[in-house]
Amino acid sequence: DAGITQSPRHKVTETGTPVTLRCHQTENHRYMYWYRQDPGHGLRLIHYSYGVKDTDKGEVSDGYSVSRSKTEDFLLTLESATSSQTSVYFCAIAETSASSETQYFGPGTRLLVL
Amino acid sequence: GQSLEQPSEVTAVEGAIVQINCTYQTSGFYGLSWYQQHDGGAPTFLSYNALDGLEETGRFSSFLSRSDSYGYLLLQELQMKDSASYFCAVLFDDKIIFGKGTRLHILP
Hints:
The complex is a heterodimer. By secondary structure, chain A is mostly beta strands. Chain A is about 0% helix and about 55% strand.
């Protein structure tokens, strides 16, 4: 299994509070991704990174920001959490790029915004 | 825009063969991948088609036809542990777009 962890694994927070989710990899892979998964929507890309300090938006980036100051860590921040951001969040890594065909996923973070 | 269509649910019998279809409206992608996800778990990679045709990996096979904008995942000799959700995904240079997934139910 790829060395990829997410923290926290579960979090309950209140509307309006900031939340930061962490993805940590030990594979030295260049590409990292944040997805959210909701019933009926599958996996939707929030943001991704193609190197340290290099990030770009995905299809559902509003309300989220990311940072990558080290190869191994990719942080996802909800500046002011809303109930619509209640979801399961998955981080994924890829060695070269998405076209390398395989992404490895972390175990996920379940976030509940009350 | 980019979209992938999959059936939301499929039911099959243990030991049988099942095909999960994926149609797409997008272009300029590198290939089509399939991922499996068990309840409460993370998606895991199953198969990838860069070229048209059939790719076989044990009990699982995947097919791509770019001219028909269509692909499928074929699961043979179904086992109860194959009960899961299956996602097709198209690969671009720097990101992957996933379908909404197909829930596979297996009856004993």
